[in-house]
Design goal:
Elements lengths: L11 E7 L6 E3 L7 E3 L1 H14 L3 E6 L9 H4 L4 H12 L4 E6 L12 E3 L2 E3 H18 L3 E4 L6 H11 L6 E8 L6 H7 L19 H13 L3 E5 L5 H10 L4 E5 L1 H13 L4 H15 L3 E4 L2 H11 L1
Parallel strand pairs: 1-3, 1-4, 1-12, 4-5, 5-8, 8-9, 9-10, 10-11, 11-12
Antiparallel strand pairs: 2-3, 6-7
Helix pairs in contact: 1-3, 3-4, 4-5, 9-10
């Protein structure tokens, strides 16, 4: 009766990794229970997840081939674009978000165009805008720019509006730290950079005032939702974003955070379900209106059991 913070099925967004082929369901070794899925398997998973209570998904793509200009990210027949159309046919009421980045599609693995060994910010904006428009055209409800290029939200908002997609929302990865917790994701998305790392454009973990500036810029450029990533070790930052900005706030419970709980649970060192719910509750208590988590299905199932 007096519980102050409550999780519901509407809080969660389920990330999915779409890959080429047919009938492909390939478990990711560092993320037990998470798979690379071909489009037919993705549509089947989304339909089953929706029936189980999951109302929102976010899609990441593994293209058949990669190149320096990430053409698979914005191709009309790109892997994510085809998956969006298929899901829209099979599960029309699910809310579809599309990750809007280039790292999964570039041969070098960076989130933008590379010239002379450096990521070129402004040249990357055009490709990110093209990607967002192609995702919206395929039927995405939200695009989710995650490249951390300066000005990406503004460039995408302008491109969407000029292309007739004024109602397509933007969930901005406004505060994305250069974290060591992304390792399993890079295996899942096959997106590890070939050289260097992403610290030049992702945020330095000790910085919080910078986080507020990044969120303020994205809000001013037209973001509809502000995200903090990762979630659990940046709960203080998440709370500050929630307090300072009058926009819905999201948090990404990232691959490494999932893997830590999953591994300890499989070893029998912790009660996995209890720690999962405790962790997700902490994210919501800190201020998240929306939680992206690989545990979405398990969390909903656990909440139903509690009832």
């Amino acid at each position: 009766m007096v519980r102050e913070t409550r999780l519901t099925r509407d809080d969660f967004v389920l990330p999915l990794f779409v890959c080429p082929g047919e009938g492909v369901r390939r478990e990711i070794s560092s993320m037990p229970g998470v798979y690379n899925l071909s489009i037919d398997e993705t549509t089947s998973d989304v339909s089953a997840a929706y029936d189980a209570g999951v109302r929102s998904v976010i899609l990441f793509g593994l293209p058949e081939s990669k190149n320096e200009v990430a053409s698979g990210a914005y191709a009309e027949d790109g892997i994510v674009q085809r998956a969006i159309r298929a899901i829209r046919q099979s599960t029309p009421d699910v809310l579809i978000m599309a990750d809007t980045c280039l790292c999964e599609y570039t041969s070098h693995g960076h989130c933008g165009v590379v010239r002379g060994g450096e990521v070129v910010n402004d040249e990357s904006l055009e490709l990110l805008a093209m990607t967002a428009v192609s995702q919206a055209a395929a039927g995405a409800d939200f695009v989710a720019p995650s490249a951390m290029m300066d000005g990406q939200v503004g460039a995408i908002r302008t491109a969407l509006d000029e292309s007739g997609f004024e109602n397509t929302g933007i969930m901005a990865y406004a505060v994305k730290y250069a974290s060591g917790l992304y390792g399993p994701f890079r295996e899942a998305a096959q997106s590890a950079p070939e050289f260097g790392d992403r610290r030049a454009y992702q945020m330095d973990p000790p910085n919080v005032r910078e986080a507020m500036r990044e969120a303020e810029i994205d809000a001013a450029e037209g973001a509809d939702i502000l995200m903090v990533k990762p979630a659990t070790i940046y709960l203080d930052v998440l709370h500050m974003v929630r307090e300072r900005f009058d926009l819905p706030t999201a948090a990404y419970h990232v691959s490494g955070e999932y893997a830590l709980i999953k591994a300890a649970g499989q070893k029998g060192w912790i009660d996995e379900q209890r720690v999962m719910l405790e962790t997700l509750t902490s994210i919501k208590r800190a201020g998240a209106d929306i939680i992206l988590t690989y545990y979405a299905r398990e969390a909903i199932r656990a909440l139903e059991q509690i009832k």
